[in-house]
Amino acid sequence: MAKALGLIEFTSISCGIDVCDEMLKAANTKLLRAGTLCPGKYMVLLSGETGDVRRALDAAIATEERHIMDHYCLPNCHPEILSVLERPRRSTPKAEGALAMCEYSRVITSIAAADAALKAAQVQLLELRTGFGIGGKGFFLLSGSVGDVRAAVEACDSIPNQISCRVIPKPDSRIFEYL
């Protein structure tokens, strides 16, 4: 059965830690990540069955709505999103074909955009960065054929908080050393 992904960002670190505890006690979910983001925010990412994820997010909202910056429940989350969030960062991403770089001002909207992109076209998720060391932003890299990469980026246009999405049709292989 497909899993849901719950994402929530807080404006307060101490509040985020407290509410994370409430979320974990409220429903049977797997904590994927919890931690500080720049500048002084806190993020919680969890997965599970859709009903459980929604209960955890509802518990967060009921506990402390004032410090919640944004929240999402992504039912039937694309499996590659969960895979990337559960594994350690790869050293150097390798792309075949075109390269897309998408940047969002909020981590959770970047994850929602990556999910939309993966569902819209046959692309590979190379990297998903979630606010650590990049000013609290979310950023992801996609690769695939030029047409598929462009279709994936178009699917991201409806997701709020987009800063920039760019496509390089034929990236120079040396660029990957610095991603």
Fold topology:
Blueprint: E1 4-10, H1 13-26, E2 30-37, E3 41-48, H2 50-64, E4 68-74, H3 79-86, E5 98-104, H4 107-120, E6 124-130, E7 138-144, H5 146-156, E8 162-168
Antiparallel strand pairs: 1-3, 1-4, 2-3, 5-7, 5-8, 6-7
Helix pairs in contact: 1-2, 4-5
Number of strands: 8
Our count of helices gives 5
Counting structural domains, the number is: 2
Instruction: Give the overall shape, derived from the CA principal axes.
Output: globular
Q: Give the CATH architecture of the largest domain.
A: 2-Layer Sandwich
The CATH H-level homologous superfamily of the largest domain: BMC (bacterial microcompartment) domain
Radius of gyration: 16 Å
Classify the secondary structure makeup into a structural class. Answer: alpha+beta
Mean pLDDT: 87
Instruction: For the largest sheet, list the strands in their spatial order.
Output: 2-3-1-4
Oligomer: single chain
Order of helices and strands: EHEEHEHEHEEHE
Q: Low-confidence spans: pLDDT under 50, at least 5 residues?
A: none
CATH topology of the largest domain: Alpha-Beta Plaits
% residues in beta strands: 25-35%
Question: What attributes characterize this protein structure?
Answer:
single chain; 2 domains; four-stranded antiparallel beta sheet; alpha+beta; Alpha-Beta Plaits; 8 strands; globular; 179 residues
Describe the model.
- The chain is 35% helix and 32% strand.
- With 179 residues, the chain is of the alpha+beta class.
- The mean pLDDT is 87.
- A hairpin with a 7-residue loop joins β6 and β7.
- The chain contains five helices and eight strands; from the N terminus they run βαββαβαβαββαβ.
- The N and C termini lie far apart (34 Å).
- Strands 2-3-1-4 form a four-stranded antiparallel β-sheet, with helices on both faces. It has a four-stranded antiparallel β-sheet with strand order 6-7-5-8.
- The protein folds into two domains: 4-74, BMC (bacterial microcompartment) domain (Alpha-Beta Plaits, 2-Layer Sandwich), CATH 3.30.70.1710; 83-178, 2-Layer Sandwich (Alpha-Beta Plaits), CATH 3.30.70.
